[in-house]
Design goal:
Distance between the termini: 24 Å
Shape: globular
Largest sheet: none
Number of helices: 8
Number of strands: 0
Structural class: mainly alpha
Radius of gyration: 17 Å
């Protein structure tokens, strides 16, 4: 939450993710645990690559990775922010980047599922709040509308898909 540099935010989110990948596959003899952990790892690696590419685009456009020194202007900075937001979307399991969640939750032990449902999302949302409040001037973009749309999409899609679930962990995911 307190990181003010894009690279530190990226590294801290990756440390949380690596621990989560390992915890999701904690039951090595359970095939569902292995499958959930592998899906989580593959989607996590993809989203980390997208986020790293977004940070590199943002750095190329602004010439700085500290959030207080960077003033995003132009199409390249906007594209970088978009890729960074996609990476945050995976970390926080925001629709449509949430397809790994049911498999990872189902395969993980129940205490790990409880941890995965809170800690990585809290870290991602805190870092996203830091990023958006620092980079986006207060009156230029209505962040409440953007976040409300993402939350509404995530809840609507999640509830519609949950109607067909028979496993309680998949239902909660």
């Amino acid at each position: 939450f307190s990181a003010t540099d894009l690279l530190l935010i990226f590294v801290s989110l990756e440390l949380v993710s690596i621990a989560s990948f390992i915890l999701a596959g904690y039951e090595r003899r359970n095939p569902k645990s292995n499958e959930g952990s592998l899906k989580y790892f593959i989607f996590g690696a993809f989203s980390s690559a997208v986020m790293a590419y977004g940070i590199s685009l943002f750095y190329g456009a602004t010439g700085a990775t500290p959030l207080v020194a960077a003033r995003p202007q132009g199409a390249m900075a906007l594209m970088g922010l978009l890729f960074i937001l996609v990476g945050f979307g995976f970390k926080a399991a925001i629709a449509p980047m949430h397809f790994w969640v049911p498999d990872a939750y189902e395969g993980a032990p129940t205490p790990v599922t409880a941890y995965l449902s809170v800690a990585p999302k809290l870290a991602a949302m805190g870092a996203l709040a830091r990023l958006l409040t620092t980079l986006v001037p207060a009156g230029s973009v209505d962040l409440t509308l953007l976040l409300s749309l993402l939350c509404g999409l995530t809840m609507t899609w999640g509830n519609l898909v949950a109607l067909f679930q028979r496993n309680i962990k998949r239902l909660l995911a």
